[in-house]
Here is the input.
Amino acid sequence: MEGVVFWLILTLVKILVILAIVLGIGAYLTLLERKVAAHIQRRPGPMVVGWHGLLQPLADGLKLITKEDLFPRYGNRFLYNLALVMALVPAALVFAVVPFGPEFELFDVKVKPMLTDVNVGLLLVFAFGSMAVFAIALAGWASNSKYALIGSMRKAGIVVSYEVVITFAVMGPIILAGTLSTYEIVQKQIQQELWYVWLQPLAFVVYMFAMLAETGRVPFDVQEAEAELVTGFTVEYGGMKFGLFPLVEWYIEVLSLSAIAVVLFLGGWSPINIPFLGFVDPLFFLGPFSPFLWFVLKVSLLFLFVLWLHWTLPRYRIDQITETAWKVMLPITLVNIVLTAVFAPLVWE
Amino acid sequence: MIQWLVFLLFSSLAVVSALGVVLLSNPIYVILALLSVLVSVAGIFFVAGAELVGALQLIIYAVAVTVFYVFVLTAVPWEKALKKDSHYRVEGLLSFPLLLLLYAEMLLVFLVGVSVSPKGQFRELLKEFGNTEVVGGILFSKYFLAFELVSLVLLIGMIGAVIIGRKEAQTYDDRAS
Here is the structure.
């Protein structure tokens, strides 16, 4: 009985820590994005609220929360609000299977810094990732507005196409690792002394494309498309309800997919890798903290890469986006799977 | 103990949502109730320790299948969603005996299945290899023929859908020129 109670408390603490980190960082990433965007365009960005705009996210939040709560006439209030929940919950649930670092001992108890090490973790990631479609479709339908509906259909079409592509793209690393558990995949990469990106460059590029498309980042941001579609499916949402959708899509989903990319292709918490030879750790002086720092570093690098693309590239048309998914990306991933299956036995040894 | 409670939670949720699928009149609510049924069944699988089946239930049924219902229904205008007079009452009455037959068959299959199912034979294997490996091993040895036949059926279905959905010589570029 004591074991059960202890396990419950440990899980609760983990949930709280992960949620606090994810949502807190999510809010502050808005400031980071504005700063990076501003410097790319040679502007200073937010400077007024706090030192170099450090308190800007709080001010934004306050403004959004105190705004009037508008609701479209003849809309469906229940579904309108349900769409918010269905957007936030699956996106946050993905972090349940993200391993933040290696197992460590705390007061004689072994703790894995992840919520649950299911042996089908990756399948769950993609199941939860695809559930974003429901939120988008519901938001579009419940708003009772043509613009919102068109925007939601566009976005849902993209998400459905790229969900297929992303699932095939991650097959390569899965074949190499021989497991679906996220923790085990990182362990395998450390054992084989090989980041899978060295053997799966195609899959990695396709994964990054699909990640941009699913999170609605440039160059695939037609659901935003300010000029043509008046910001797509969120057009009838106001105040904090409006703020929640970009928060989920642009920050929480990008973070979770970057973390999964790091786990699959960049060796999770392992330091810099020289293929088949070993690892070089310039941060060795941090001792047990170095794996966690490596994980955070890799995720933030990927996030900055996404920001960099967002503020430099133009936008694709909707038909170009879906055509690329089905006619280019999917065949590439299929070829990649066959090639991987051919040389995988060499890696296993 | 905890397992029982969680099982009770998921199974009662599944039953209540299944009632919702049958009784609700707004089609969007019906889809959501269906989604809730599928997710809670996935929950039951997880409680039973069948993680692979649970995850597949989520990814195939709760996402891939239900999404297409949502796609169709988002094209339904708001006023039409509340219509209640489109039920085929006579046809429903006529098909009732067939429905009973179907239920009887399901019950039979269930009872037969319980009597021939392996009673704990795989438990040791599961502990040693984990869910995915055991399912894959059995699928690609004992049930290999059935597995290949099912994939063939799916292929035929896909080709059929492409043929039906395709409109030759009616592309956007042709009309524009």
